[in-house]
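PT: before anyone asks, these are the final sequences, not the draft ones from last week. 792 residues across everything. Please model them as a single complex and drop the result in this thread when it's through.
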Amino acid sequence: MRNVAIIGTGHSKFGARTDVNLQELAWEAVKQALEEANIDQKEIQYFSVGNAGMWSSENLPAIVVGEYCGLTTKGTMRVEAACASGSAALREAYLAVKSGEVDVAMAIGVEQMHQSPNPNVVEMIGRAGSYFWEFENFGLTFPGYYALYATAYMAKYGLKEEDLGKIAIKAHHYGSLNPYAHFQKEISMEEYMKSKPVAWPLKIYDSSPITDGAAAIILASEDFARKVTDSPVWIVSQGVSSGFANLSRKSDFTTIEAAREAADMAYKKAGINREDSWKVFDVAEVHDCFTIAEIIAYEDLGFARRGEGVNLARENQTYIGGRIPVNVDGGLKAKGHPIGATGVSMAVSLARQLLYRAPNKGMQVEVKNGMALAHNVGGTGHYGYVTIFSTRRPSQ
Amino acid sequence: MRNVAIIGTGHSKFGARTDVNLQELAWEAVKQALEEANIDQKEIQYFSVGNAGMWSSENLPAIVVGEYCGLTTKGTMRVEAACASGSAALREAYLAVKSGEVDVAMAIGVEQMHQSPNPNVVEMIGRAGSYFWEFENFGLTFPGYYALYATAYMAKYGLKEEDLGKIAIKAHHYGSLNPYAHFQKEISMEEYMKSKPVAWPLKIYDSSPITDGAAAIILASEDFARKVTDSPVWIVSQGVSSGFANLSRKSDFTTIEAAREAADMAYKKAGINREDSWKVFDVAEVHDCFTIAEIIAYEDLGFARRGEGVNLARENQTYIGGRIPVNVDGGLKAKGHPIGATGVSMAVSLARQLLYRAPNKGMQVEVKNGMALAHNVGGTGHYGYVTIFSTRRPSQ
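LR: through. Structure below.
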């Protein structure tokens, strides 16, 4: 099969972006990606748009984005995988190039959550759980689901609130360095511990915000990539899995099976042992929709053994210079989590890290192996997407 | 690149299916496809779900469908291309197999339009046009858009209401033979001419209905297909294109550019001249959301020259035995148009036709070349998807 390379990346400022509409927001990222790749729209043969929908009254986001960004009449579709919709967009563009259907494809992720037609954000987010059964019957909200993960982890492995605080403090530290981040200020443990409870033990500072944003990435076949860049970042492998809709089917609340399975699929294709994964990657982006999710991700990805992910937080092992730097762009928690954009944003951050193009030197990791990993979860474990990137050309 | 074969097809009864929920409806099609392929769920490595969304309060249709159908923990995503969402699902599964990411994938299309959380169907359908500008400001409804096509065609080529009636009568004729169709009764020209106006010249009998339904198709690599079937139907090529969101950007209302461009892409890959296309295909499915759309499709696909599509209707040339049989399953008009299911339903009908497995002998075409075409339009020309099928193995 063909190798697929990233040849351009773009990222809008994340935040409360009511200054623009959906397509203007997308254009900020698309324009940057085209400029970075030094190509124009006519060379894009296909584009996918990650957008969760329901947060906008616009029912054809791929079409309005395509028209505004000058991508019409190229083929397109909108994809949705809940909070992993951005990774689904990346996958769709990846498959289009890898299959040989096209040579150049763009994945666009965009969400404008501040213009929701439904002001009840708790209900909106609740729909990404088990809506008809658990939300409507039991009022189980999205923070409620992750509070179940947190309390289960506390009971089994002795997690403390302060351990979650360490994740939040790290997120805000790197967010303060990232010009694209929604939140750009440091927080202290004292501020964290005093922050308003949402669903015990989760507080405001444990929770990713309601954010507007867009990210874009241009993928190309090896032949095309060779023509336009001498620094491609390759997609080595991708794993994708799904989880059950209902909590009643979950056997364990200290792991997200879909993410673990997606990681194992990606590792297998890339020839990586999960025990060694932390030695392989120079940097990783994981889905910290809530702080507890980052600790669980450490274990689901093999960065730590079961029950020991919390130690990475306690020992600051996921800062730059630690065992493995994670979410050094601020993560969902501080960079923000515009649903459809997040998965593409992860790929943008990682590609830039691998090329020493982090937007701020303070957030640039040391690149040794030239490899990076993105971990993106949809819903409360309904979707798992794991993608591995490398500066070294994969051998097919 | 790898050849991709259809190894199983499934189709639910279309209609007002308030007797089941979304996942139960999907299962009717998934079960049939698994039985036809004679494999079980564990052999499906990936599945895509075409669902337009907004017609259900369920925000994670791919997850609830996957769980109910026993497809969890396989990788998945939901795809949307307005009324071509089913073709987008087929494309996603096609790319997954063609790229070598998986050997067996299922495309599921499902929509349950009778359980919409928004009772205002006119507004709902209006959202598949240019919602914020043309619908909200000018009240342009979906039938209104297609009435513009009809009046433009009338003015330019002398189309009469009776010509549209011929399309409706054909649709209801074949619908009456199709056990899966929403409408199973013949209509007369007199009934057609007397039917209630919707947006002149379009009447109730020119319009596809609000329908619930599901369809499923199993795709496999050549190696896997050889193991499980001696009668694969191959996907020869696919063309996808997009159109502008706003009418103001359209130059011509007697053609749908995105569909025409998608057809030219598919023809080029398959080595077919558009002038000869009507000689190549034994049967075609086209997107007759309104009768006028079928006449325009004849021309966009090259079955007739510009302005002469109406003659195929007048001369009954698209009945079985005519120049080229079109929509001999009843089409969107009589079979029904459950948005996310339609594109998959087209592929199911065509694969069965090519294998002499039409559900009713009266709707079975004579198979000469073993080739068929599906034409699926999203929105009012926003998406164009054209797929070519053959019983002969494509040479790569």
